[in-house]
Specification:
14 helices; mainly alpha; about 75% helix; disordered N terminus
Length: about 400
């Protein structure tokens, strides 16, 4: 089991329901991961909803006080930027819906035909791209507003209650944003690291499986087919990494925690973004490499008539696996040491890459023959080396700027 000092677990975790609950709370207490972020979001949403209810019910004595806490919870997003953006969109959607009811209601009265028009126009406006995910709230607000409008007994009461809906939504959105900004506003530096770790682990795991087989000449069709499938399935990982990176960038916008000493100077994620892009391109290049090997096996059974070349190539892939391993453990707290280590590994990989190119030239391999993989292997080795070298250089530059 995991020790108090954070050591490795030596026993399997208990799987009872209460055990899993205790483990969940333990992770929320000990690590800044999914569990803690979830718990924090629930607590902040509860606080925002309670404050909104107090203002709308006890202070304003509103007939429909639930609009305020509903609005506060609805726009409690992961990042401050998203809270501001979604609150503006939501407020705009509600205002449009209420204004539409007011206009159509006073023209046609609270009858069935008016409701049909309200639904038709509200659902149509909800398709407006500027409202984003809050577009559906136009019709929702219009329906609530129409019921309020129909229940009112006088023209002044109708106007007052429709205006009150917008006021309650404004109060809920305002309280939600204030709570999100002032109570532990989320920072997502680790999301950028996580995206790099995910892609590096996938890339390193694949090339780590490839280089021993190349070295031993074990290039059967089944193994090459598996490599190809694994390389082609990394698209989902790339999408997740990109989303995590965008979340990390958004966490900086309008976030007061940037003013704290520990976060001061972290103005962007340009270095991480460049590394992430290089890893994406590397995965696509490895996918091209695996396709060539697989096609070679399908067409000619993979004649291994140049062992020296395959040995050199396996050494090159092994050097890339070492770089990917370090990238897969990327941590901002130890980035200076890791950047130095990456530069050393990149120099070693450059030597291995040069051996591949020189060996292919000396052996007179058919690099232009499309039925043999040698040409693709040489080209992809150069491209992969360029991307990994770029990743190492970018991180070193990022570290130098921080010093």
């Amino acid at each position: 089991m995991a020790g108090k000092d954070g050591g490795q677990r030596t026993e399997a975790a208990a799987q009872g329901r209460l055990d899993r609950v205790r483990q969940w709370w333990g992770r929320a207490r000990d690590t800044a991961g999914y569990e803690r972020h979830t718990l924090l979001l629930v607590v902040k949403s509860t606080l925002a909803a309670t404050l909104s209810w107090v203002v709308s019910y006890y202070l304003l004595n509103a007939p429909s006080p639930a609009f305020a806490p509903f609005s506060a919870v609805l726009i409690m997003q992961v990042t401050v930027y998203q809270s501001l953006l979604q609150s503006l969109r939501y407020l705009g959607a509600v205002a449009v819906g209420v204004a539409m009811v007011a206009g159509l209601g006073f023209l046609g009265g609270p009858d069935l035909l008016t409701f049909v028009l309200v639904a038709l126009v509200g659902l149509s406006i909800g398709r407006w791209p500027a409202l984003g995910s809050q577009g559906s709230q136009v019709a929702t607000a219009a329906f609530f507003a129409f019921s309020t409008y129909a229940a009112a007994t006088s023209a002044s009461q109708k106007i007052t209650q429709l205006g009150e809906i917008i006021l309650l939504v404004l109060i809920g959105c305002g309280i939600g944003v204030i709570v999100n900004v002032t109570v532990a506003p989320p920072m997502r530096y680790r999301s950028a690291e996580y995206g790099i770790r995910t892609l590096s682990t996938a890339l390193g795991g694949l090339v780590s499986d490839m280089y021993p087989a190349l070295r031993e000449g074990e290039l059967d069709e089944e193994r090459c087919s598996q490599w190809r499938r694994r390389a082609e399935q990394t698209g989902g990982l790339i999408t997740q990494a990109r989303e995590g990176f965008r979340t990390a960038e958004e966490s900086l916008y309008f976030n007061p925690r940037r003013l704290l000493r520990r976060h001061r100077g972290r103005a962007s994620f340009e270095g991480y973004g460049a590394v992430l892009g290089a890893l994406e391109r590397s995965l696509y290049q490895v996918a091209s490499l695996t396709r060539s090997l697989h096609q070679w096996q399908e067409e000619e059974g993979g004649r291994h008539d140049d062992r020296a070349f395959l040995d050199d190539y396996s050494d090159f892939l092994e050097s890339l696996a070492k770089i990917a391993q370090v990238l897969g453990e990327l941590d901002e707290d130890t980035l200076i040491e890791q950047a130095r280590q990456l530069c050393q590994l990149a120099d070693e990989a450059q030597g291995c890459c040069q051996k591949v190119t020189d060996g292919a030239s000396r052996a007179g391999l058919p690099l232009a023959d499309p039925t043999r993989p040698y040409g693709v292997l040489v080209v992809e080795s150069t491209r992969l080396m360029e991307e990994f070298q770029h990743s190492c250089d970018v991180l070193q530059k990022h570290v130098d700027q921080e010093l």
